Structure formats: structure tokens, C-alpha cells
Inverse folding.
């Protein structure tokens, strides 16, 4: 049970979010841009901290602690499912390209690429639909994670007598998720983007303190106790198969590995890289990450913000993850991993380790930090959903001349509707991993084809984008039903091919995008790729126009950036598990990677048109 001090710390944090919402309420209501993008006046490092706070979500942290407990250092590869390295593509060039559009949302960006004729309008509508589905999926994902988390600290037996209705045991996490969701609604609805960023900075500070303390406790535990893990657990390298045998340590973990489907790890890894690179080339999905990019002051600051996210988020987060994994491995016998339905659930490792090992006061700080992580993710995602509903539906089709008061009221109404719908959706989700796998493997699979082609191929038009997205979304709904026992990741090639076919056929079913739209887009964004016909036309009008020849340098920076990002993950693991030689080797690789990025990326950020 929580102590009075722990409860007080959580209450103070919740009160601070309400105060932040009230403080920034007036400035957020000045205009649509002020509410949705913070007036594009927020410094890049604050937006980076805010974005990092949003990615430090409670459901993802639960999942990552479970992964490290089971797979050890090899678990650093599995987040490539998201893919985590998409931040590197954004950092190197895509954030800069996106920010040059000066759009408010990803759907509004469609107009800068495809114009405003029939195909562009269809594309606009399908992006709004996809964005809302994605936002609702992420909200449901966070909703389930928070509920499972809180269930450990507030046992159902304690409050069952006070609930005037019957709650089936399998829906206890959903009940808790619903209750705490309403705490997250206030400041995100009232304060808009400015309120979200200020609250996120406070939340990230709390999470950083909590992460450092837990990492230290794990480091001390490893130094004072024997650690029993399978052979190969401490190595990031792998063969054709994973070959982690828990039979003589914790046999149930082998069942977890089989259920995850990661046994043939080389095939799994190749599929992750294949999918991850394509998803990253497609650019940001229309969620809170895209909104933070569009909120920056300039294209160069957009790139800096995306790079800063990895620097501040990953080392801190993995310090906490490795600390919890160390404590759980050493004191496994003390953990109660039975869920309300009486089954062993390894996703309960994080909350049970907290309640077992965190002292009074620190437990409250940890809870406040992880609840803050949920609220940050929730608020950012809710803001993105509101942006699409208000900017891309209400203002575009319903009331283009709405007053500031009408926009404000519609923001509130749309936010409330999204919250209610996401809660209902959450009740149909089985667990954290099932929602995550659906988002990253199925929904992203439907998104990739059209969104790769839109950046790099001039002939791709609005009709192609629309039919590519439609084909992808329909296949995302049908294909998993045809292969119910297949791991979601392995369905990605099917979804990709269907989406690409839909996009290419749709493209040639209609004329190219209006030439003036294409030339304006090319002059503003300056993409590399298959743009020669448009480049030649722009060059004929303006002989000073230079072609973007940065493809080679950008890909080199992406490669080096992914190496640096991976060292950010692995280094805290080696530190906490006292792997001295691997730690120093990894630190050297990190230093070299950062030096190369300083020379070939940071120093050249302002070379192109900004």
C-alpha cells in the first residue's frame, strides 16, 4: 500500500499540472496556431524535452523492462520494431523538409504537396482518417499500460467495496485506466501545446530523478548479489536462433520467448530492419511527434529538436530500465507476477519491482514520474487528434470562418469525444503488447507505401496517395484475419506490396499534380530523389537553383546516427550490470559517432535553404 508521503507527492504533481493548464490558458486561446503549435515560438530544446517526455510512456517502459529481463542486452534491438531509429532519419533531413512546409498538421501538409484538386482532397481525408485511427490506438495503448500499472499499487480488493457496480477481474486495469485518464485531460485541453510542453518539462525532470535513483539501486544490487542469467544474455550479438535457455533458472521465461515469436532472431531482425528503414523513409506518422516538429521556429531547429530527443531520452530511460531489470532478476522470488485473473504476466515486472524495492518517498516519486509519462504521451496524442479534427475537418469543411471562441469550444468538444472513444477502444484491447504490435506492424504497414513515394517521386499524385492509403488500410483490416497465427511483423511485406500497388495504379489513373504546386513544393522543401523533371523546370526559371546532392551525406549521417543511438541504449545496460570492458568499448564508439555527426551533420544544418 502507498504511504501518506507517497500519496502526497503524487497529489502535488497532479495539482501542478492543473496549475500549468490554468497559467497558459489565456495565451493558448489567442489563435488556432497558438493552441495547436504554441505559436511556433517554443525553443527547440524545450520541444525536444517535451517530445522525449511523451516517448517516455508508461506502457512502453513496462514493455522494455520485460524485454530486458527476458532477452538481456539483445533487447536493445527489439525497439527497432517501432522503429526507434526513425528519429535519426528525422534528425538528419526529414524534420527539416517537413518544417519548411509551414503547415499546421500532416493533413494540411498534403495541400503543399498535391495542391487542392480532387486527388488532394481525397488524400487529405484519408490522412485525417489514418491519423485519428493512430491517435486512438496510441491512447488505448497508454490506457491499458496505466491500468495494469496502477492495479499493483491499489489492489482491487481495497476499493471494490466502494464501487457501486460489478467490474470483471479482466477489466480491472481498464477501470483504473479510465479513472486516471480524466486527470490527464485537464491541462491538455485547457493549455494546448504550450501547456503540454511546460507540463512535459516538469514531468521529464521527475522521471530523470526517478530513473537515476532506480539505476543506482540496480547497480548496487548487481555488485552485492549473484546474478543468474542464461549464457549469451550479456551479449548484444546473436546467431540464427536466439539460443537463450532459461530452463534451469526461470522456466516460464522460455514460454514467454515462444509466445513472443522471437526465436528465429536473424529472420526477425532482418524483417525489423527492412520494415524500419521503409517506415523511417516515409517520415513521421501524423501524431504528436509530427506536431512537435511543426511547432519549431525553423527547419534547422526542427532537425535539432529531433536529434535532441534521442540524446536526452534514451540514456535516462535505459538507466531506469536496466535498474529495474537488475532488481527483478536478483530478487525474482520476491516478485508476485500473478495478475487479477490468476495468470503469470511478465508485464507486471516493472510495477511489482517498484513496490518491492522502492523506499517510502521514492515510491511516490517513481509513481508520479511514470504517471507523468502516461499523461505526457496522452496529452501529446490528444493534441494531435484535436488538431486533425478541428483544423482538417471543422475549419476546412464545416466552418472556415470560425471565431476564436468557436475554435476553442470545438477544441474542447473534440478532445472530450476522442477521450471517450479511446476509452471504449481500450476495453477491447487484450494487453499492452497486443496493441503495440498492431500499431507498429499492422497500422504502420498500411502507411508506408504512399508516404515513401510522396517524398521521393515527383509523378506521385493525390490519387496515388489516396488509393495507396486505402489499399493499405483495407489490407491491414483483412490480412491479419487471413493469417491469424502469424507474427504481425511478418505480415508487413504483404501490406507494403498491396499499398504500393494501390499507390502506383492510382497515380497513373490521373494526370500529374499541377506543375506550379510541384515547383513550389520543390523550391521550398528541396528534396532529393526522383525530381529531375521538376528541377529542370525550376532551374529554367531561376538559374541559381541548386540541386539537392546530399543523399550520400544524409545516408552516412543516418548510419552513424543509428550507431550512436544504439550506444545510448547499450551503455546504461553495461554500466548497471558492471560489464567494464564492453562499457569502455561502447563509450569509445559513441564518442567517435558523435564527433562524425558534429562534423557532417550539425555543422552543416544551415547550408541549404532555411
Amino acid at each position: 500500500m502507498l504511504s501518506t508521503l507517497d500519496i502526497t507527492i503524487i497529489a502535488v504533481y497532479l495539482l501542478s499540472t492543473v496549475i500549468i493548464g490554468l497559467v497558459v490558458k489565456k495565451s493558448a486561446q489567442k489563435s488556432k496556431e497558438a493552441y495547436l503549435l504554441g505559436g511556433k515560438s517554443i525553443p527547440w530544446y524545450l520541444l525536444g524535452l517535451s517530445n522525449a517526455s511523451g516517448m517516455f510512456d508508461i506502457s512502453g517502459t513496462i514493455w522494455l523492462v520485460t524485454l530486458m529481463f527476458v532477452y538481456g542486452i539483445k533487447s536493445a534491438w527489439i525497439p527497432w520494431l517501432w522503429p526507434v531509429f526513425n528519429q535519426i532519419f528525422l534528425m538528419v533531413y526529414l524534420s527539416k523538409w517537413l518544417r519548411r512546409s509551414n503547415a499546421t498538421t500532416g493533413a494540411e501538409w498534403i495541400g503543399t504537396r498535391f495542391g487542392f484538386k480532387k486527388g488532394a482532397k481525397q488524400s487529405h481525408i484519408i490522412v485525417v482518417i489514418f491519423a485519428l485511427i493512430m491517435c486512438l490506438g496510441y491512447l488505448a495503448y497508454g490506457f491499458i499500460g496505466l491500468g495494469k500499472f496502477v492495479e499493483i499499487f491499489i489492489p482491487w480488493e481495497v476499493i471494490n467495496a466502494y464501487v457501486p457496480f460489478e467490474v470483471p477481474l479482466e477489466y480491472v486495469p481498464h477501470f483504473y485506466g479510465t479513472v486516471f485518464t480524466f486527470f490527464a485531460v485537464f491541462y491538455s485541453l485547457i493549455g494546448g501545446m504550450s501547456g503540454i510542453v511546460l507540463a512535459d518539462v516538469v514531468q521529464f525532470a521527475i522521471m530523470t530523478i526517478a530513473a537515476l535513483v532506480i539505476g543506482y539501486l540496480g547497480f548496487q544490487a548487481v555488485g552485492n548479489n549473484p546474478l543468474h542469467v542464461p549464457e549469451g544474455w550479456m551479449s548484444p550479438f546473436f546467431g540464427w536462433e536466439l539460443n537463450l535457455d532459461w530452463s534451469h533458472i526461470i522456466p516460464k521465461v522460455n514460454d514467454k520467448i515462444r509466445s513472443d515469436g522471437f526465436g528465429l532472431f536473424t529472420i526477425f531482425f532482418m524483417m525489423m530492419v527492412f520494415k524500419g528503414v521503409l517506415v523511417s523513409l516515409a517520415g513521421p506518422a501524423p501524431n504528436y511527434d509530427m506536431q512537435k516538429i511543426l511547432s519549431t521556429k525553423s527547419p534547422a531547429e526542427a532537425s535539432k529538436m529531433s536529434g535532441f530527443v534521442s540524446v536526452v531520452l534514451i540514456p535516462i530511460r535505459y538507466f531506469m530500465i536496466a535498474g529495474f531489470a537488475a532488481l527483478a532478476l536478483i530478487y525474482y522470488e520476491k516478485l508476485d507476477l500473478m495478475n487479477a485473473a490468476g495468470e503469470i504476466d511478465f508485464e507486471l515486472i516493472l510495477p511489482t519491482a517498484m513496490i518491492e524495492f522502492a523506499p517510502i518517498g521514492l515510491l511516490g516519486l517513481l509513481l508520479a514520474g511514470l504517471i507523468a509519462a502516461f499523461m505526457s504521451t496522452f496529452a501529446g496524442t490528444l493534441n494531435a487528434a484535436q488538431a486533425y479534427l478541428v483544423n482538417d475537418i471543422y475549419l476546412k469543411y464545416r466552418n472556415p470562418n470560425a471565431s476564436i471562441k468557436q475554435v476553442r469550444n470545438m477544441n474542447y468538444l473534440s478532445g472530450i469525444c476522442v477521450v471517450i472513444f479511446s476509452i471504449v477502444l481500450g476495453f477491447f484491447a487484450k494487453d499492452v503488447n497486443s496493441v503495440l504490435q498492431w500499431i507498429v506492424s499492422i497500422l504502420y504497414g498500411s502507411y508506408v507505401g504512399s508516404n515513401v513515394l510522396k517524398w521521393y517521386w515527383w509523378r506521385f499524385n493525390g490519387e496515388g496517395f489516396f488509393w495507396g492509403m486505402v489499399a493499405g488500410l483495407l489490407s491491414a483490416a483483412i490480412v491479419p484475419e487471413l493469417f491469424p497465427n502469424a507474427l504481425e511483423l511478418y505480415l508487413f511485406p504483404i501490406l507494403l506490396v498491396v499499398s504500393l500497388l494501390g499507390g502506383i495504379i492510382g497515380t497513373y489513373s490521373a494526370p500529374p499534380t499541377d506543375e506550379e504546386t510541384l515547383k513550389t513544393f520543390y523550391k521550398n522543401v528541396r528534396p532529393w530523389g526522383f525530381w529531375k523533371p521538376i528541377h529542370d523546370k525550376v532551374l529554367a526559371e531561376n538559374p541559381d537553383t541548386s540541386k539537392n546532392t546530399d543523399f550520400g551525406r544524409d545516408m552516412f549521417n543516418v548510419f552513424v546516427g543509428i550507431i550512436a543511438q544504439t550506444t545510448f541504449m547499450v551503455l546504461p545496460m553495461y554500466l548497471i550490470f558492471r560489464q567494464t570492458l564492453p562499457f569502455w568499448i561502447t563509450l569509445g564508439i559513441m564518442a567517435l559517432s558523435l564527433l562524425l555527426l558534429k562534423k557532417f551533420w550539425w555543422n552543416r544544418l544551415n547550408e541549404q535553404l532555411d
